[in-house]
Specification:
The chain is 22% helix and 26% strand. It has 213 residues and is an alpha+beta fold. The strands form three sheets. It has a five-stranded mixed β-sheet, covered by helices on one side. Strands 8-7-9 form a three-stranded antiparallel β-sheet. The protein has a two-stranded antiparallel ribbon with strand order 6-10. The radius of gyration is 20 Å and the shape is globular.
Length: 213
């Protein structure tokens, strides 16, 4: 028998919280809220084992915070840490869970009032750990017997390929996302990094999968 539970917890940042997604050192505090952000947990249980999928409407999650969420949820809810999948949506209009702009071993120490330089603010990050674990706990408490089905269908325009191909055959991430003017894009990239990009890899992902319980 398969049992499934789901839950979500609001993680919308308060006004003034730094939004990640811009360049390093650019402070972008929340000025208005158009849509709430959530931490969503899905727990699937079968034969006494549980798997948890945690998705958060954030830009990034670092290894430190991934491990903290896994450790605490495993301790409280009878989960194997390796069975907890922590995922974020790379939402560039949201905060980051952990400092993504500076390597932990980098010797520069950011003053408390300039935490945004590292890409995240500790106060918000600490609150998200608790809320993520709360979402997992609610999903564990909500498990019930289900029948599961899975399907896949086309959804035109869902995503596009943004891989750049250099003249030497190596792959790069284009600095400028231009879908119709490849030559100007290649020239600008060449000026910036000294290695010419000849094309943007063609193709797009136009299918989406869905699971129903």
């Amino acid at each position: 028998m398969i049992r499934v539970g789901a839950a979500q917890v609001d993680i919308t940042p308060p006004l003034g919280t730094h939004l990640s997604g811009d360049g390093m050192g650019i402070h972008r505090p929340v000025k208005t809220i158009l849509d709430p952000l959530f931490a969503r947990a899905l727990v699937i249980e079968s034969d006494g084992r549980r798997v948890c999928l945690l998705a958060m409407d954030l830009l990034c999650v670092t290894l430190e915070y991934t491990q903290r969420i896994r450790t605490e949820a495993a301790r409280r809810f009878r989960l194997d840490p390796d069975a907890i999948l922590v995922h974020v949506e790379q939402n560039h209009s949201s905060p980051s869970l952990g400092a993504l702009m500076l390597d932990p071993d980098f010797p520069f120490r950011v003053p408390p009032d300039k935490e945004y330089i590292g890409g995240a603010e500790t106060r918000y990050c600490e609150s998200i750990v608790a809320k993520a674990v709360e979402a997992i706990g609610k999903a564990c408490e909500d498990t019930r017997p289900v029948q599961m089905g899975w399907g896949r269908a086309a959804c035109e325009g869902l995503a596009f390929n943004r891989r750049g191909v250099r003249t030497d055959g190596t792959i790069c991430m284009p600095w400028f996302y231009v879908t119709t003017q490849v030559v100007p894009l290649a020239r600008r990239y060449h000026r910036r990094c000294g290695r010419a990009m000849c094309m943007v890899s063609a193709g797009s992902e136009d299918s989406v999968g869905a699971t129903r319980c």
